[in-house]
Amino acid sequence: MKRPPYRKEAKKTDAIKKDTDKKRKALERDLERDLKGTEEFGQDRLEGRNPVMEALKAGREIDKILVQKGEREGSIVRIIALAKEKRIVVQEVERQKLDILSSTGVHQGIIAFVAMHQYVEVEDILAKAAEKGEHPFIILVDEITDPHNLGSILRTADAVGAHGVIIPKRRSVGLTAVVAKASAGAIEYVPVARVSNLSQTIDKLKEQGIWVVGADMDGEQTLYEADLKGPIGLVIGSEGEGMGRLVKEKCDFLVRIPMKGEISSLNASVAGAVLMYEVFRQREH
């Protein structure tokens, strides 16, 4: 006796469903593997439309907002508009990424990443130097996206007595859980200011009598030849790319680290440590 045709159709439908589920699970595993170890996976986050909206209204520091692709209705529209007004990065992602990052399971198509620690104003960093009766020693970090590098820079900044670190809001990692861990506790002691425009901030520092020195392989002099005493703002760029063009042009002068080996550059945090310790050495003598 032949089976009814609908049985065959049902089996075909079940096979398609199983194949789709298998592909979806494989995609989720790939996304989870790619995300593990990044600052997003360990960073504090807010999930859901109301929590994110209230955080924006309250002026809480938000590093980035992820929105599900295609979500452009109701409160999501207002959240995106308010975020852009506050110059917060908004990124569209697939729903699977939000599902993996979500710890509540009810993200409603939106997750916001918030800073592990509160940022300060540039004026607070200058005030810290004034309170100690010292010339300002400030580290400016440009386009460093690796949280381990920023954490290491904070650790060295604390060791050399720098008064604070300045980072840009865009194209730079914020104060994430990974940064906090890499700093070995220094994040609790080194004030960090986050600014919208690093070039304009450099101009303001110059108005305060601070010399801004950029670390660059094409520097006209080595860091050992340069006079790094007095009020100093030290700019450290990303590994490979270095400082952005505008930031580089704003520096009063550039210094290089002399190298004899075959490798043309150092890891950003290592280069930063070498430079910071030379400033420290000169200030102490």
What does this structure look like?
The structure is a single chain. With 285 residues, the protein is α/β, with parallel strands linked by helices. It folds into 2 domains: 76 residues, 60s Ribosomal Protein L30, Chain: A, CATH 3.30.1330.30; 163 residues, SPOUT methyltransferase, trefoil knot domain (Alpha/beta knot). Helix content is 44%, strand content 18%. The protein has 11 helices and 11 strands. The chain has a 7-stranded parallel sheet with strand order 7-6-5-10-8-11-9, sandwiched between helices. Strand 5, helix 7 and strand 6 form a beta-alpha-beta unit. Helix 3 runs parallel beside helix 4. The longest helix has 31 residues. It is elongated and about 75 Å long.
Q: Specify the biggest β-sheet.
A: 7 strands, parallel
Broad structural category: alpha/beta
- Total strand segments: 11
Instruction: Summarize model confidence as the mean pLDDT.
Output: 84
Number of helices: 11
Report how far the terminal alpha carbons are from each other.
100 Å
Regions with little confidence, pLDDT below 50 for 5+ residues: none
List the domain count as a whole number: 2
**Based on CA inertia axes, which overall geometry fits?**
elongated
| Helix-strand pattern | HHEHEHEHEHEHEHEHEEEHEH
The gyration radius over C-alpha positions equals 24 Å
- In CATH, what is the homologous superfamily of the largest domain? SPOUT methyltransferase, trefoil knot domain
